[in-house]
């Protein structure tokens, strides 16, 4: 499966985040407390927002460095094997006496919607020192990405170091946490979904106009460009100079939405790193996410660069034909 080690790597992306092993259970519904129900399927695979974003970016052609912490256990071995297979450079310190992270993912058989419990394990012990140890990697990158599954001080230091070295910063504020206002000016791009954008701004989001109102709040806090991912409605890019809604790409029946946001962020970062303009990068991220939801799994569902380009080219020729 080392389908990506042969492609020419363009643009370095450094990602700070967590790895967890996804344990995915499919069933008709969630069990009630005290109840046991039969599931229809089980799968185990690599996950964690940061690691998923790293896989998405690597398959999309970026030169990826991923920084995290692992436990000294079987799940940590799965992590390393995943990164080797994808051609990702890992900066992963091993913490003894703490487990590698794991996620329980329930997938509804009928809708493909999910409910997730994440235990971040060793990655939950990350701090600013992990970032200082990879300062040279960050300084040599075009794009730096982080999220909120690892402790906030590590994410903040990553954004500060990237900013100091003139590296483009992409902050994926997931899962939603209350944040101090001083983190926002460190973000060239922030990529919340509707729920996270509402949590950060207090603006309820039912449509693109609501998303613009929420984005204005974030711009006022000092963010450079806000991207609100809107699921089936696509993604909104909103800055001081432009506001563009890119529709979602429908690439087949939706099998599992878990990991779609990670696919979007990883694809967006890879496109920025190779020099795409923000709207082209937004389209690339949307197309990548549109393919990923038609496949089971989080990291395993991420498409290759060729697959994403095919969807983009089909869409371009279809719009010219109309």
UniProtKB/TrEMBL annotation:
Pathway: Carbohydrate metabolism; D-ribose degradation; D-ribose 5-phosphate from beta-D-ribopyranose: step 2/2. Its main location: cytoplasm. Keywords: ATP-binding, Carbohydrate metabolism, Cytoplasm, Kinase, Magnesium, Metal-binding, Nucleotide-binding, Potassium, Transferase. ATP binds at residues 193, 229-234, 261-262. Gene3D superfamilies: 3.40.1190.20. Substrate binds at residues 20-22, 48-52, 149, 262. CDD domains: ribokinase (cd01174). The keyword Kinase applies. InterPro entries: PfkB_dom, Ribo/fructo_kinase, Ribokinase, Ribokinase-like. The active site is at 262 (proton acceptor). Activated by a monovalent cation that binds near, but not in, the active site. The most likely occupant of the site in vivo is potassium. Ion binding induces a conformational change that may alter substrate affinity. It comes from Paraburkholderia bryophila. Its EC number is 2.7.1.15. The gene is rbsK. Requires a divalent cation, most likely magnesium in vivo, as an electrophilic catalyst to aid phosphoryl group transfer. It is the chelate of the metal and the nucleotide that is the actual substrate. NCBIfam families: D_ribokin_bact. Transmembrane segments: none annotated. Its cofactor is Mg(2+). This is Ribokinase. GO terms for cellular component: cytosol. Homodimer. Belongs to the carbohydrate kinase PfkB family. Ribokinase subfamily. SUPFAM superfamilies: Ribokinase-like. It catalyses: D-ribose + ATP = D-ribose 5-phosphate + ADP + H(+). It is found in: Cytoplasm. Catalyzes the phosphorylation of ribose at O-5 in a reaction requiring ATP and magnesium. The resulting D-ribose-5-phosphate can then be used either for sythesis of nucleotides, histidine, and tryptophan, or as a component of the pentose phosphate pathway. K(+) binds at residues 258, 292, 295, 297, 301.
């Amino acid at each position: 499966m080392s389908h990506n080690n042969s492609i020419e790597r363009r643009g370095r992306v450094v990602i700070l985040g967590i790895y967890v092993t996804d344990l995915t259970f499919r069933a008709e519904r969630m069990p009630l407390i005290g109840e046991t129900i039969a599931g229809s399927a089980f799968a185990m695979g690599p996950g964690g927002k940061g690691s998923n974003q790293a896989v998405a970016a690597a398959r999309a052609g970026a030169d990826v460095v991923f920084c995290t912490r692992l436990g000294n256990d079987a799940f940590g071995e799965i992590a390393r094997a995943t990164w080797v297979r994808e051609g990702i450079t890992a900066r992963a310190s091993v913490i003894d006496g703490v487990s590698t992270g794991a996620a329980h993912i329930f997938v509804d058989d009928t809708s493909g919607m999910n409910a997730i419990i994440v235990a971040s394990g060793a990655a939950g012990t990350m701090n600013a020192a992990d970032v200082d140890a990879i300062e040279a990697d960050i300084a040599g990158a075009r794009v730096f990405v982080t999220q909120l599954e690892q402790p906030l001080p590590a994410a903040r230091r990553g954004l500060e170091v990237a900013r100091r070295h003139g590296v483009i910063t992409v902050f994926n504020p997931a899962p939603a946490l209350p944040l101090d206002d001083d983190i926002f000016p460190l973000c060239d791009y922030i990529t919340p979904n509707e729920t996270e954008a509402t949590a950060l701004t207090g603006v309820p989001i039912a449509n693109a106009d609501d998303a613009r109102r929420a984005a204005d709040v974030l711009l006022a806090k000092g963010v450079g460009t806000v991207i609100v991912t809107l699921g089936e409605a696509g993604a909104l890019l909103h800055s001081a100079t432009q506001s563009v809604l890119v529709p979602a790409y429908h690439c087949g029946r939706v099998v599992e939405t878990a990991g779609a946001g990670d696919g979007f962020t990883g694809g967006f970062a890879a496109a920025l790193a190779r020099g795409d303009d923000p709207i082209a990068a937004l389209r690339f991220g949307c197309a990548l996410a549109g393919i990923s939801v038609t496949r089971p799994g989080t990291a395993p569902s991420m498409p290759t660069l060729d697959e994403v380009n095919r969807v983009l080219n089909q869409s371009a020729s279809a719009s010219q034909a109309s």
